[in-house]
Write a structure and sequence with these properties.
With 530 residues, this protein is an alpha/beta fold. Helix content is 55%, strand content 17%. Helix 6 runs antiparallel to helix 11 and helix 8 packs antiparallel against helix 9. The mean pLDDT is 82.
């Protein structure tokens, strides 16, 4: 099965480490060195690349750490953290600027680091659930499908009004809007503007007609004192005096002209007279059309567009109402299916959790936790709420695992879990897994790591020779000082150099003949047991 592998770790200017490059392979790799040499700094650099907070110790601000992985699809993934000129820590993914969250997300499938801090896997409920599902081959396909179908039906029902009463009220409102439009029934989007123009025109004509008739009455009307009557009276006062010449004739002509003009004014005024009911009708129509505008917003053309949309919505709502009862039945059936599948899935997960916890419990003695208690609790309707409970020593109540386990205990427990979680496809890194143990227990730890390394890449920071001896590749972290400064180097050891390093781990010195002989024997036994 393809699996992720850490192939290279590069570190520059991290505390006393000037430059270090580790070339790694599949199988079991150990990193050793005296206490304080800087082994944990390498793990810190790796954690930094996978999105950990800035825990660097860089004296000159040139820190750079990078890790090169090959994922389970054989693609290279380069994760980098480096200090910029401004002193900020920059994240890079395959050479391109990225966020810390991106590094964290992609590294989840690449590496698991177990050490002096809580494992990310033990903090993440989804990861715990994945462990149980993988160990018990629990398949949530049917449950996920039933849940998806129920969600789609609920969304469909929600989209048509939520409840049947809501839908009926919506239909009633849409019908009222459409009926109002049909009652007013505008002839075209331009009817309002045309009606206003017509109303203004005939109103003006009506006013002018009244003025013409009034002017005719003033010139020659029935009322006393009109112009023609007054002019005739003036003519009578003059009589037939000979010395006035043609003035009487001219005044008489003026009277006739006034009466002629008055007749013309009446003729024109009568021809332009407007029916007052037409003005009233137009006023009412303009008011109705303006109300329609306000109801639908904008102008009359918007009302025409809106009413077509309302008709479509009404047709859909009426169709939904016809299907509402059937939709309700489908929702009930889908909910029943979800309940059945969730109960079945929970039962599968409870069985898997019981077998998983028993398997881990059996491994606890092998990983130097002989008095510890481990259990898995499965809750939730579908069993997706998983809690790992742990009690490292008798006399205490079990607690959620990340709350009670020390660094060494956590690493060893994760080793026991890894041995029972199928075939992980990520790299497993254990920091100080052998803290506080030795002798035969250490050999058992080495055997467990060797077994795990047959399934996935394993990298271990260790102080125990029996653990270091079973590795397929061995790196040593060494610290030196010239009195003014301290430097740390990282190098791979093979052959006699590796024998000497394991002898140092056994006896504190690489020159002891007995420790050298024991170191060779440990290495030979490890080769035979691979």
């Amino acid at each position: 099965m393809p699996r992720a592998t850490l192939v290279e770790l590069n570190v520059s200017q991290l505390g006393p480490i000037g430059n270090a490059q580790l070339l790694l392979t599949d199988g079991l790799t150990v990193i050793t060195g005296e206490t304080g040499a800087g082994k944990t700094l390498l793990i810190g650099a790796l954690q930094l690349c996978t999105g950990a907070s800035d825990a660097r110790n860089s004296s000159d601000g040139d820190l750079r750490a990078s890790t090169l992985f090959v994922d389970d699809e054989k693609r290279e993934v380069l994760l980098t953290r480096e200090v910029t000129d401004g002193g900020r820590l920059r994240s890079l993914l395959n050479g391109a600027t990225a966020s810390v969250e991106q590094l964290r997300e992609i590294s989840r499938s690449l590496v698991e680091i177990h050490g002096q801090h809580d494992s990310l896997r033990l903090r993440n409920k989804a990861e715990l659930l994945a462990l149980i599902d993988r160990s018990g081959s629990c398949n949530s396909y049917e449950f996920d499908g039933a849940t998806k179908r129920l969600r789609q039906l609920l969304n469909q029902r929600e989209s048509v009004g939520g409840t049947e009463d809501d839908l009926r009220r919506r239909i009633e409102f849409l019908s009222f809007q459409i009926d109002e439009f049909n009652r007013i029934k505008p002839t075209s989007p331009q009817e309002l503007s045309e009606s206003i123009l017509r109303l203004e025109t005939i109103t003006e004509i009506s006013k002018m007609s009244e003025s013409l008739l009034r002017a005719a009455d003033l010139l020659d009307g029935d009322d006393d004192g009109n112009a023609a009557q007054t002019t005739s009276a003036a003519l009578q006062l003059l009589g037939r005096a000979a010395h006035l010449g043609d003035l009487p004739q001219r005044i008489n002509g003026a009277v006739e002209e006034l009466r002629s003009v008055a007749q013309d004014l009446r003729r024109i005024g009568d021809s332009g007279e407007v029916d007052s009911s037409e003005i009233d009708r137009l006023n009412q129509r303009v008011g109705e059309l303006r109300n329609l505008n306000r109801r639908f917003g904008g102008d009359l053309s918007d009302a025409f567009v809106a009413i077509e949309a309302l008709k479509i919505e009404l047709a859909g709502a009426e169709e939904s109402l016809r299907n509402f009862a059937n939709l309700d039945e489908l929702v009930v059936a889908a909910q029943d299916e979800v309940d059945r599948e969730s109960a079945l899935l929970k039962s599968q997960r409870q069985l898997a959790a019981a077998e998983f916890s028993q398997g881990v419990q059996k491994e606890l003695t092998r990983v130097a936790l002989p008095h510890a208690l481990f259990d898995v609790e499965v809750n939730g309707s579908d069993g997706s709420d998983v809690t790992f409970w742990f009690r490292p020593n008798p006399g205490h109540n079990p607690s959620p695992i990340h709350q009670v386990a020390s660094g060494g205990e956590l690493s060893r427990l994760m080793l026991a879990i890894a041995l029972n979680s199928g075939s992980p496809d990520s790299c497993a890194i254990f920091d100080e897994i052998d803290a506080g143990i030795g002798g035969g227990v250490a050999q058992s730890i080495g055997s467990c790591l060797q077994e795990l390394a047959r399934r996935q890449q394993v990298i271990v920071v260790t102080h125990l020779a029996s653990v270091a001896a079973v590795a397929t590749r061995h790196w040593v972290v060494e610290k030196s000082s010239d009195g003014d400064s301290t430097t740390t180097t990282v190098r791979r050891v093979e052959g006699d150099e590796r024998v000497s390093e394991i002898a140092r781990m056994l006896a504190g010195s690489a020159d002891n003949t007995e420790s050298l002989a024991l170191a060779r024997r440990l290495l030979e036994d490890a080769i035979l047991n691979r």
